[in-house]
Amino acid sequence: MDIVRKKKVSIIQKYRWWLTAFTIILGVVLLAPRIVNSEYELDSQRLVFGNVEHGVFEIKVRGPGVLTPKDIRWISSPVEGRAERVLVKPGAIVSKGDVLMILSNPLLQRQLEETQWELEALEAEHAAASVELETRLLDQQAAVLNAKLNYQSAAMRLKAEETLIKRGTQAVSQLDYEKTKLEVEQYKARVSIEQQRLAKVTQNVTAQTNARKARLNKMKKTLERVQEQVNNLSVKASIDSVVQDVAIESGQQVVLGSNLAKLARQDELIAEVQIPEISIGDVTVGQKAQVDTRKNKIIGTVTRVAPSVNNGTVQVDIEFDVPLPSDARPDLSIDAVIMIAEKPNALFVRRPSFAQSNKVTQVFKVTQSGIAEKTTVNFGQGSVQYIEVVEGLKAGDRIIVSEDTEFKRFNKISIN
């Protein structure tokens, strides 16, 4: 029987992978400082340089945006109907009261006619009732007058009989005298009753007249409302403006409250600018700004800073201090520069592509011998193209401001 002998493995073969990895790591550790400290050669044509300056430093932030109307009006439909005619298109200039479109609603037209008929009938009823009430009032006034005349006649007869009785004549009997006195009292009471009845009739006439007038006024208001709805079938512009959008087409059914047209004043535009969130901290209401429309530059003032961040930017609204040029129109793309502050005695340099405001950053400073050495710089506030130098550089120093991804691992660069 053969016995299989196991092949002996040497120590080197057993740990060869570990030895290879250790050798590579040792080489990297030994060679890395040499690579970092060695000089890397670059052509000056591939680099962008900036010189440290001393003087007035204007701190600005920049952002893109669009012009948008300050006052936007959506014309909504106050009635239901069908669009018969659309008289304007986007871009049309309209004045307040101009007809934008015409709607139709046969139901409203019939309702208007029926309401007019009801009002005419109610006015006729009111006129007839007024004549009847006036007649009742006149009859009662006549009754009061008759009662007064009867009372006055009886009173005169009583006075005459009293005179005859006092003279002792036998022309008037005592019985007739007493009967006359009774009649005077009766007529006096009747006058009082008729006067009270006249007051009640007057109150009744007034109440019924007021009630009929209230119903008549209610019907008039109903007619006015229906007439207004019919008038609203002609949709009109509410301001002097430019038509931005027309939301319906001829033949389309329109429901109550639906948007029909969008209007905006051409001469009242604001700039909505998107400022990066890293730059928004210094922007406040009241700061001056310059808006570039590609053809004109317009001075304005910051009036609003949005409270929230959207996709890495914050919206800033700018209103203009001067009349807008002829090329200004809604949705026009613009660039805006906001003036943050001005430092009269500061060091500043063209902003390196990798530098951030109020951060310590390493940059390459160019020496007189043409060698760029890595230098630690404390930057302050940043502007659109420049950034403040707080510490690490002096006026006249020259640094590399272009992208340093290719050579940032080196401490020195030889510039050809």
What does this molecule look like?
The structure is a single chain. By secondary structure, the chain is an alpha+beta fold. The protein folds into three domains: 40-68 and 268-415, Efflux pump adaptor protein, beta barrel domain (Elongation Factor Tu (Ef-tu), domain 3); 71-105 and 233-264, OB fold (Dihydrolipoamide Acetyltransferase, E2P); 107-231, Helix Hairpins. The protein has helices at residues 11-14, 16-37, 106-167, 174-231; strands at 39-42, 49-51, 53-69, 72-76, 81-86, 93-94, 99-104, 234-236, 241-246, 253-254, 259-264, 269-276, 288-292, 297-305, 313-320, 333-350, 360-366, 371-382, 386-391, 398-400, 412-415. A hairpin with a 4-residue loop joins strand 17 (360-366) and strand 18 (371-382). Helix 3 (106-167) runs antiparallel to helix 4 (174-231). The longest helix has 62 residues, at 106-167. The protein is elongated, with a radius of gyration of 51 Å. The model is unreliable at 28-38 (pLDDT under 50).
Write a brief structural summary.
By secondary structure, the chain is α+β, with helices and mostly antiparallel strands. The chain has helices spanning about 10-15, 15-35, 105-165, 175-230; strands spanning about 40, 50, 55-70, 70-75, 80-85, 95, 100-105, 235, 240-245, 255, 260-265, 270-275, 290, 295-305, 315-320, 335-350, 360-365, 370-380, 385-390, 400, 410-415. The chain folds into three domains: about 40-70 and about 270-415, Efflux pump adaptor protein, beta barrel domain (Elongation Factor Tu (Ef-tu), domain 3, Beta Barrel), CATH 2.40.30.170; about 70-105 and about 235-265, RNA polymerase II/Efflux pump adaptor protein, barrel-sandwich hybrid domain (OB fold (Dihydrolipoamide Acetyltransferase, E2P), Beta Barrel); about 105-230, Helix Hairpins.
